[in-house]
Specification:
438 residues; 14 helices; two-stranded antiparallel sheet; mainly alpha
C-alpha cells in the first residue's frame, strides 16, 4: 500500500512539474481541474479565480498609474514655468545691471563713448520692464507653488504606486497558481488517512487568503476605472500646460538676449580691466640714475599732456627737471604706444549693439488668468495613494479594519513551504499542514 501511495505521489508531481500552471475561471463545484491536470478543491479553485481577477486589475492599475505619473510629471513642469521665468528674469536683471555698469565705465574711452551712451539709454527702459516682470512672475510662482508641490509629489506617488503594484504581482500573485497546485498535489499524494485533515487545513487557509484578495480587489477595481489620463484633474492641468507653452517664446527671446549681452559683456569687462591697468616704463636720468614710472590707462586716454602731468607728479622736482631736459617726450610716447596697442586690440573685440529689447515680455501679462483659473478648479483634496508593502493595508485607501494584506504572502508561503518551483521534486517532503500524519 505504501509503495502504491508513493508511486501515485510522484506521478502526480511529475505531471504538475512539466505542465505550466494556468488560471482558469469557472463555476464553483465540489472539485475543479486546472490546466495542469491537478484537481483543486472548491476553496482552492475560488482562490485561483479571485486571485486571477485581482492580478488582472493590479496589472492594469500599475500600467495606468505609470501613465498618470508621466502626465503629472509634465504638469509639474508646466506649473514650474512662473518660477522658472522669475529665475531667468532675475538672472537677466543682474546681467543687464552688469552691462550698464560696464558701459558707464567705458564711456570714459573716447572711441567707445557714443555707442556706450546709446547702449545705456537702451538698457534703462528694458531693465525697468524686466524688474517689473520678475516681481510679477515671482508673485505668481509663490501663488501656484502649493499646487506644483502637490502635483510633483503625486507624480512620485503614482510611479511608486505603479512599481509597488508590479512588485506585489511579481513576488506574490504570480506564484498563487503554483501554490494551489502544489498544496493540492501534496494532499493528493498523501496517505488516505491524512487527506481529510490536510484538505481541511488547506481549504481553511485558502479561504483566509481569498477574503484578503477579495477585499484588496474591492479597493483596486474602482481605482482602475478612475486612474486614466482623462481623469478630471489631469484635464484641468493639461489645459494649464497648453497655456504655459505659450511662454516658450519668451524663454527663447530671453536666451537670445542673454547671448547678445554675453557677446558685448565679455569685451566690455576686458576693457574695464584695461582701464585700471598701469603702463610702466624705465628710463635713465643722467646724474640721477635709473628711474621707473607708471601711468594708468584712465590717464593715458586723456592724451599726452595728461600723461606728462602725471609723470611730473610722480617724479621728484629734481628728477622731473632733468628728465624733461633729456627726453620726457620719449617716455610719454613709449607709454602711449604700449597702452594704445592693447586698447586697439580690445576695441576690435567690442561690438556694442545699442538696440536691446524683449518684445515677448508683454506676454507675461497673460499668465495670471490661467493661474487663477487653475487655482479655482484644482481639487484641494487631490492625492495619489502611496503603495507601501510594509503597511498592513499597503497604503490603499478604504481597506476594511482588521484586514492585514501581509497575510496574502505569508499564507501563500504556508501553502507551498518549499517554494513555488514546480520542478522541485522535494516540494511535498515532510509537509503535513499542521496534521498528525499517520
Amino acid at each position: 500500500m505504501e509503495s502504491t501511495i508513493k508511486h501515485y505521489y510522484f506521478v502526480v508531481l511529475l505531471v504538475t512539474c512539466f505542465i505550466l500552471p494556468g488560471r482558469a475561471h469557472g463555476d464553483n463545484q465540489q472539485s475543479s481541474s486546472t490546466s495542469s491536470g491537478v484537481t483543486l478543491s472548491v476553496a482552492l479553485k475560488e482562490l485561483d479565480n479571485n486571485s486571477a481577477i485581482l492580478e488582472t486589475d493590479v496589472k492594469q492599475l500599475s500600467v495606468r498609474a505609470h501613465k498618470v505619473s508621466q502626465v503629472l510629471d509634465i504638469s509639474a513642469k508646466g506649473l514650474a514655468v512662473p518660477s522658472k521665468l522669475a529665475s531667468v528674469l532675475t538672472k537677466l536683471e543682474t546681467v543687464l545691471k552688469q552691462l550698464d555698469r560696464a558701459a558707464e565705465i567705458v564711456e570714459a574711452v573716447p572711441q567707445a563713448r557714443e555707442d556706450a551712451k546709446k547702449l545705456r539709454s537702451s538698457i534703462e527702459p528694458l531693465l525697468k520692464d524686466v524688474t517689473t516682470a520678475k516681481e510679477k512672475a515671482r508673485r505668481i510662482a509663490d501663488k501656484i507653488e502649493p499646487v506644483r508641490i502637490t502635483v510633483a509629489k503625486s507624480s512620485v506617488n503614482a510611479e511608486n504606486f505603479s512599481k509597488g503594484l508590479a512588485l506585489f504581482d511579481h513576488d506574490l500573485l504570480q506564484h498563487e497558481p503554483a501554490a494551489t497546485q502544489i498544496c493540492q498535489t501534496c494532499i493528493n499524494g498523501s496517505a488516505d488517512s491524512n487527506k481529510a485533515c490536510m484538505q481541511s487545513k488547506v481549504d481553511e487557509k485558502a479561504s483566509q487568503i481569498n477574503k484578503l484578495v477579495v477585499e484588496m480587489d474591492r479597493i483596486i477595481k474602482p481605482l482602475v476605472a478612475s486612474y486614466v489620463p482623462s481623469m478630471p484633474v489631469l484635464a484641468i492641468l493639461d489645459e494649464f500646460n497648453i497655456k504655459m507653452a505659450l511662454f516658450d517664446d519668451l524663454q527663447h527671446q530671453i536666451d537670445m538676449l542673454e547671448s547678445k549681452i554675453d557677446v558685448m559683456l565679455s569685451p566690455l569687462n576686458e576693457l574695464t580691466k584695461l582701464l585700471d591697468k598701469e603702463f610702466r616704463v624705465k628710463f635713465h636720468v643722467p646724474l640721477l640714475g635709473e628711474h621707473s614710472v607708471g601711468v594708468g590707462m584712465r590717464t593715458i586716454i586723456q592724451g599726452s599732456n595728461a600723461i606728462e602731468k602725471e609723470i611730473e607728479h610722480l617724479l621728484s622736482k629734481a628728477a622731473w627737471k632733468v628728465a624733461k631736459e633729456f627726453g620726457v617726450g620719449k617716455i610719454v610716447k613709449s607709454i602711449e604706444e604700449d597702452a594704445h596697442k592693447e586698447l586697439d586690440n580690445t576695441l576690435k573685440k567690442l561690438h556694442l549693439n545699442p538696440v536691446l529689447s524683449l518684445a515677448a515680455l508683454k506676454d507675461l501679462g497673460n499668465i495670471e488668468s490661467p493661474v487663477d483659473k487653475l487655482l479655482a478648479a484644482f481639487p484641494r483634496d487631490f492625492t495619489i495613494p502611496s503603495f507601501d508593502l510594509k503597511l498592513a493595508d499597503f497604503g490603499l485607501p478604504g481597506i476594511a479594519h482588521g484586514f492585514d494584506l501581509h497575510l496574502i504572502g505569508i499564507n501563500l508561503n504556508w501553502l507551498a513551504p518549499k517554494g513555488f518551483d514546480l520542478k522541485n521534486l522535494g516540494l511535498c517532503k515532510e509537509i503535513s499542514y499542521g496534521c498528525n500524519l499517520k
